[in-house]
């Protein structure tokens, strides 16, 4: 058994025990009396469930130092706390007592949150590699789509695809919910016909991949900070040169697409950002579609449809040939009409491409084209340091 497989087994066992604790707490909570009540027919059952809860609790591991504590109260203690609070006649005392009675629910929720976060951290690299492998396998399988729809798909790549999807199932566990069209993808894998492969490439996998990546790099996971108190950095009065260039080589093409997607979706005046995906395209690229809203006092509010094409090219400049190919590709996304095409690259544009684009824009041809070279992206990201940090660009 690999180290990762063993680690997943430990997490899955912890998840199973946590589910048992949650089920027991649900039963215990139903037996907690309302108001001032002592003893009663439910007391023995309540005590039995509490013993079972504590027995399982004793085997729960810590999560980065956090420990799931025993906050259960027996029925007699609950009566005493409520009686004392009533005697004091202070509403805040009564609120504190009720909070202490049901504190176990909050501890279970906190533990589950931390368990999911730790599991996502554990699987992040492996799941990213599995997603990339599925992309590559679908590109290799794409020629099969030229065959008859009722033909069976088989061979090494098809079997490897099944294995990779099964790996993703194991990796995501309960920390990542099943993505859209996941059941459809499994059904198509089972049938294994050319028409099923077509649906996987054009529908199932693009929707599933987007959701998997979104959950994998969710906003609830913190970016590590290496100092306990930022005031110490201020008091040290640090000096020295400032690094301004971004390390584009630290990210791959997929990460660059996610970076641009985040940049656009978080910008003021841009709404309804979403992916337009061709998993089987030669460059495996994804376009970002977004609406730009322009408010004018005289003419009112207008919406423009914008498509962003991402090119993580550092060793090659974008020339006229690439620009014309991207313009032609815009027809795939109409209707509705594309008003503007933004070409975002970590590299540069050739002189001829810049002249071509400027002339085209001056002639008012649609769609209008905007160039985002690496220098323009660095300018945009200078005002958004959280993205620079999140994507490890500096």
Summarize the model shown.
By secondary structure, the chain is α/β, with parallel strands linked by helices.
Summing up helix and strand content along with how strands pair, one would put the structural category as alpha/beta
Task: Bin the helical content.
Answer: 40-55%
Q: What's the number of helices? A: 14
Oligomeric category: single chain
**What is the strand content?**
5-15%
Describe the largest sheet. 5 strands, mixed
Overall residue-averaged pLDDT value: 86
Shape: globular
Report the uncertain regions. Answer: none
Strand line-up in the sheet with most strands: 1-2-3-4-5
What's the N-to-C terminus distance?
A: 37 Å
Order of helices and strands: HHHHHHHHHHEEEHEHEHH
Rg value: 28 Å
Total number of strands? 5
């Amino acid at each position: 058994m690999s180290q990762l497989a063993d680690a997943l087994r430990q997490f899955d066992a912890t998840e199973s025990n946590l589910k048992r604790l949650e089920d027991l707490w649900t039963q215990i909570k139903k037996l907690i009396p309302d108001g001032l009540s002592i003893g009663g027919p439910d007391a023995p059952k309540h005590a039995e469930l509490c013993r079972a809860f504590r027995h399982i609790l004793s085997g729960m591991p810590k999560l980065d130092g956090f420990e799931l504590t025993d906050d259960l109260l027996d029925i007699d203690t609950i009566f005493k706390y409520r009686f004392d609070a009533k005697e004091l006649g202070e509403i805040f005392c009564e609120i504190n007592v009720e909070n202490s009675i049901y504190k176990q629910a909050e501890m279970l929720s906190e533990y589950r949150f931390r368990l999911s976060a730790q599991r996502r951290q554990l699987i992040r690299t492996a799941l990213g590699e599995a997603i990339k492998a599925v992309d590559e396998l679908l590109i290799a399988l794409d020629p099969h789509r030229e065959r008859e729809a009722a033909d069976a798909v088989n061979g090494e790549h098809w079997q490897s695809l099944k294995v990779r999807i099964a790996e993703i199932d194991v990796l995501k566990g309960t920390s990542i919910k099943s993505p859209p069209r996941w059941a459809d993808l499994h059904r198509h894998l089972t049938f294994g016909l050319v028409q099923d492969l077509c649906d996987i490439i054009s529908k199932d996998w693009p929707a599933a991949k987007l959701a998997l990546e979104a959950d994998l790099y969710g906003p609830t996971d913190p970016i590590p900070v290496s100092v306990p108190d930022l005031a110490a950095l201020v008091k040290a009065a640090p000096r020295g040169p400032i690094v301004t260039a971004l390390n584009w080589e630290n990210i791959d093409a997929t990460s660059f697409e996610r970076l641009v997607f985040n940049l656009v979706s978080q910008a003021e005046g841009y709404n309804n950002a979403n992916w337009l995906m061709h998993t089987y395209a030669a460059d495996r690229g994804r376009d970002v579609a977004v609406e730009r809203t322009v408010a004018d006092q005289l003419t009112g509010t207008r919406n423009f449809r914008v498509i962003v094409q991402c090119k993580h090219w550092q060793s090659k400049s974008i020339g006229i040939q690439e620009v014309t190919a991207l313009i032609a590709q815009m027809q795939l996304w109409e209707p509705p009409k594309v008003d503007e095409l933004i070409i975002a690259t970590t590299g540069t544009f050739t002189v001829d491409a810049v002249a071509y684009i400027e002339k085209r824009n001056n002639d008012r041809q649609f769609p209008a084209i905007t160039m985002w070279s690496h220098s323009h992206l660095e300018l945009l990201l200078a005002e958004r340091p959280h993205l620079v940090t999140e994507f490890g660009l500096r």
